[in-house]
Request: fold
Amino acid sequence: MNRLLLSIFIFLTFFFVTAFSHEKLVPHAEINPLPLKIKKAGHNKLIVDVAWDGVNVKEDEPVIKRLKCFSKAVTVKDPVQKGTFGERKAQFELTVHRNNAHVKCRYGVLDGVIFKKTFTFQT
Reply:
């Protein structure tokens, strides 16, 4: 009888604790990068497609899209672009000056929420 009462007490305790307690979530905004794509667009041109998704960010929220490469082997045409979060993508054109060079670049989307990622490739 004691084991039965003890097991009922434990069951009811866990039931009431889980049934009458709830999480209080803190609202937050988050921008998540999607995989980027690098396409060859000619003899010395590359196109970098950057895409993102997010949580609790307004579609008309203004954002700044940036791409910076840390090598003299490439230059970025229009490295800073303005737009809205709802576009969910950006396209950057790279001009290649040297072949077989390792290039490290950083890209990101900036508004109240920021994400920055780096990637490397060989020209």
About this structure: The longest helix spans residues 2-20. The chain has one domain: 30-122. The first strand starts at residue 30 and ends at 33. The helical segments are 2-20.
